[in-house]
Structures are given as C-alpha cells and as structure tokens.
Amino acid sequence: MENSFNSNDPIYEAWEVEDPLGRDRETDLVVTTTRRALCRMAFVAAETAARFEREGIDHDPVAWMMTPRRLFDGESALDACLDRTGFKRAVILHGLSVGLDALPAQIDALMDDDDDFEFDDVEEAFEQSQSPGHRGRMQVIGGEQGSLGVPRFPTPVRHPSRPRDSAQHCAQRAKIAGRAHALSAMKAHP
User: Fold this and answer.
1) Where is this region: Disordered (predicted)?
2) For residue 106, is it within any domain?
3) Is the overall model pTM greater than 0.70, yes or no?
4) Are strands 147-149 and 139-141 parallel, antiparallel or unpaired?
C-alpha cells in the first residue's frame, strides 16, 4: 500500500481547494456540523501531519487532507472525517501506517463493529464521578462556566469482571484474529 497514491488515477482529477486567505463569498459551500465532527477532523489533520513527519513521508499533509481518496469513497478527508466512519478509517490507515490510500473494505475489515453500547468505561466513570457525594476526578468548577477541574485525589474506575473463557471473550478473540489476518493480507498485497 505504500505506493497506493497514484496522481494519474481519475479519482484525483476533479478536486478544488478554496483559498483559505481569500474572503468568504456567497457562492462558498456552507457546512453545518457539530463540534464533535470538527474535533474528528482536527484529530485526523494532526495525526496525518505527525505520521508524515515521523515516517519522513515526502507528501504535504494538507494536500492529503484535501485530495479525494478511495478510502473515503471519493471524498476528501476534510469532508469525510466529519463523519465517524471516515474518521475511524483515517485513524486506522495512519495508525497502522498502511499507505496513503486504501480500499474502504480493506480498512473496514479492521474496524470494531461493537457499537451496541450506550456508554464506554470512561463515560461511565465520568457519570459516576458526577453523582452526589462522589469525590470524583472530574468536577465541574467555576459555577455557570462549566469548566472541568481535576482534583488531586484519584477515582477508582470499576472494571466489570468477565470470565476469560466466556463466549463473549472467545468471540472477541476470533474477531481480533480476523482483523489481524485482514491486516496481514493488506500489507502482503499493496
């Protein structure tokens, strides 16, 4: 996958970048989004730049963010990473250093498909720390401002104990083995 970027590929022909120093125009595309989506895009931009620097990749990270990619079904990372799926694909691509572009199916095979939870452990711990009488790590301080403070005492996070040989554990191990196989196949056939 290291040589997966091909500037002659038709997918990279029709793309345009607005001049960031230019004045906004009435014809500019208006994007309505959430702060969470902006955080996803900022995270991918930072990870892209860090990876290119770390691995000595001679490619502009901003150009990578702005260019349409097969990984994002022909969208640019700038647009696709506002969505959770595009974000996860970019994080996996850069986290595993498997090239500059990939087929979505290759990366999706590595994604976690366990999205049937309401809260993860961190969110649950935060919710617990906000309960009355709990001297938790995260506390709202500053009255109406709603900023977070970190007191000096630790909060124990409870971890549910699961038997190591449970059906859920075995299924998880099989899923991890399948992802490892998919990653090996991707690296063997770029």
Assistant:
1) 145-169
2) yes
3) no
4) antiparallel
3-state class (DSSP) for residue 76: strand
CA–CA separation, 136 and 154 (whole Å) = 7
Number of domains within the chain: 1
CB 90 within 8 A of CB 47: yes
Q: What is the pLDDT along the chain (190 residues), one digit of tens a residue?
A: 444 545 565 555 556 677 888 899 998 888 889 999 999 999 999 999 999 999 999 999 999 999 999 999 999 999 999 999 999 999 999 999 989 999 999 999 888 665 544 445 556 666 666 666 655 444 444 444 444 444 444 455 554 554 555 676 667 677 777 777 777 666 666 5
Task: Using CB atoms within 10 Å of the CB of residue 42, give its burial: 0 to 12 exposed, 13 to 18 middle, 19+ buried.
Answer: exposed
CA pair distance 106, 182, nearest whole angstrom: 7
